[in-house]
Amino acid sequence: MDMMLGVLKEPSHETRVSLLPEAVAVLVKKSLDVVIEQGAGQKSFASDQDYEKAGAKLFQRHEIISSSQIILTIHKPSLDDVALMRSKCVIGVYLPLYHVPRMHEWASRGVTIFSLDMLPRTTRAQTMDVLSSQANIAGYKAVLEAASLYSRYFPMFMTAAGTIAPAKVLVLGAGVAGLQAVATARRLGAVVGVFDTRPAVKEEVISLGAKFVEVEGAADASQARGYAVDQSEDFIKRQKEKIAENIMKSDIVITTAQIPGKAAPLLVTAKMVETMRQGSVIIDLAASTGGNCELTKNKQTVLHNGVTIVGDSNLAASMPSDASKLYGKNVVNFLQLIIDKNGNLDLNWEDDLVKGCCITHNGEVVHERVRSLMIG
């Protein structure tokens, strides 16, 4: 009998699904039995019939949990679900550095957890890097959201009724989301400035037609897997002054800076927001870890002094078809590391990618960083 892989339906607030039918078809060819919870793909515009055509079977949730060796669920399963998942492999995006007690609880239930957001960010991991595939969408949608909320045009227009100046966009953080935001804002005709503590991204920013806002003396972030790192007090002071000076002249601010396992760095103070002209927009993609803007409220839109501040760390879910397609490709690529050519589970702990994103195994928290946070 082939090994069974189950896909669970996500919580009601989530529109994505771990695998679309096209990804299921790939796994079925690799001798896997794929079972899908009824209605799992509905919000991603994939029907139960589409899954059946791709070779999957439709099961109830409890049947999937009891009969699958590998279970896919993007969001953290409930403790009731976990209680039934003993010795199973569960794969998703669980932000373990922010949910240490939960990881301890899962370990005690004997579940093997792979959290794909913890994959080492190496060249070999790029095809399974869920953070990048979803951040790309978030950066794109952040600009479209901003354009739709903004009280003015994005491009420069010369009309018989007068000339409209282009919107000035400031992007804080030139990671995957930031660079996609730059590219999208440029396509819409905005003038774009970018701030990042890593001088290495300057060339990429300039190649996209944006201006790089530089602050000298940043701490080296070259080993930080594409994230921000903690900076010296003197640097932070000069950084704030430079950001304040640029925010005053900006119509749209898109913030993307995060530090793994810590609160997002505070880059935009209430005072800075109050220097922006009314009708301006801030989109804060770091909202779920505290936000880069002092006034951000996660999953809410706030109006302050005529400036709209959107706190949304899950913008990828607003494009569920492509978000699920890319996420599913990432998952299929990761599965190739833990499933042998006969379709059996084969956990190779010598592989730095398998080891790097495994959080719990054999009743223990095995990820060193997560374990050190538990002890600390």
What does this structure look like?
The chain is an alpha/beta fold and 376 residues long. It has 13 helices and 17 strands. The protein has an eight-stranded mixed β-sheet, with helices on both faces. It has a seven-stranded mixed β-sheet with strand order 11-10-9-12-13-15-14, with helices on both faces. Strands 7-8 form a two-stranded antiparallel ribbon. The chain starts with a strand and ends with a helix.
Radius of gyration: 22 Å
β-strand amount: 15-25%
Helix residue percentage: 25-40%
Query: Span between N and C termini?
Result: 45 Å
Helical run tally: 13
Low-confidence stretches: none
- Could you describe the largest sheet, including whether it forms a barrel? 8 strands, mixed
Mean pLDDT: 93
Task: Sum up the structure in keywords.
13 helices, alpha/beta, 8-stranded mixed beta sheet, 376 residues, globular, single chain
Write a concise synopsis of the structure shown:
It is built from 13 helices and 17 strands.
List the helices and strands and how they pair.
Elements: E1 4-7, H1 21-29, E2 33-37, H2 48-53, E3 57-59, H3 61-67, E4 70-72, H4 79-83, E5 89-92, H5 100-108, E6 112-115, H6 130-149, E7 157-159, E8 162-164, E9 168-172, H7 176-187, E10 191-195, H8 202-207, E11 211-213, H9 233-247, E12 252-255, H10 270-273, E13 281-284, E14 301-304, E15 307-311, H11 320-338, H12 352-357, E16 358-361, E17 364-365, H13 368-375
Parallel strand pairs: 1-2, 1-4, 2-3, 4-5, 5-6, 9-10, 9-12, 10-11, 12-13, 13-15
Antiparallel strand pairs: 6-16, 7-8, 14-15, 16-17
